[in-house]
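Hey, resending since the last one bounced:
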Amino acid sequence: MYHKLSENHSDTLTVKLSDFEKQINYLLDKGYTFYSVEELIKLNEQKSKIKQKAVALTFDDAYLNNLTFLIP
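The structure tokens again:
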């Protein structure tokens, strides 16, 4: 779970964009599969298996910077 992304780390809830990119690249390099929450719900309803190395990213509190930095 993340809260805020920023180009400049400003408080304990904020992750620098460059650090976030490193974290995502680490997970990709280690073979993790990214799922949306919607995908996980659907897989659960279908009683389908979820890959062993699975991750779903969530962004709490709906800060505007999530749209500014994450979506592009």
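The first strand starts at residue 4 and ends at 6.

Sorry for the duplicate.
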